[in-house]
Amino acid sequence: MKPFSFRNLLSLLIMLVVTGGMFAQSPATVLDEAVGKIQKAGSVSCKFRIASSADKLSGTLMSSGSKFRLDTPAGKTWFDGKKMWTSNPRSKEITLVNPSSQEVREINPFAYLNSYRSDFVVAYSKRKDPASHLVLLNPRDKKSDIKAVEVAINKKTMLPERFIIRDNRDRITTVYVDALSITDRPSAESFACPVEKMTDYELVDLR
Predict the structure, then answer these.
(1) What stretch of H or E contains 105?
(2) How far apart are CA 146 and CA 43, in angstroms?
(3) 148 pLDDT higher than 70
(4) What is the pTM for the complete model shown?
(5) CATH class for the domain made up of 25-205
């Protein structure tokens, strides 16, 4: 039996590095897999909890591509990809606007996943979580109101379970995703406010 030489050791180390590189997932690949699962199914539905220094809120969310519907005790929001309606049960008003992409992200955190390749530089977070891939999104636009977004992708389901959003004033908002389910693509009517049925509300068109 030949003795284990330095050349053998060097070959073994190179093999381990190459093999490790083959199986290591890049942060962009992690997001690709998560987004791919959502897009293949059509939509996601979940319960959510939002915690920030200013407020706490919970509710349900259904999101499909750029469209979504949000339901909270404070009111409901519908977005059909262009127009956004928000109902206020206290004032009995429905506000209609054409929101910016940033305004959409502030309401629906899944919107960050729709534009991560074009609008963000993707990297792994320095923080570690044994159960999740922690992917950091840094805006390409230096004038963005957002400084960074950390997305936690569950390693077993490969679906998002938490968004930590830091704005340019270093204020942090954490969105917890609970009971996430993948569903078939719903009808377009699911993401449009049924204004004609809400006869006790006044429509305020701010477009």
Answers:
(1) helix 101-107
(2) 25
(3) yes
(4) 0.83
(5) mainly beta
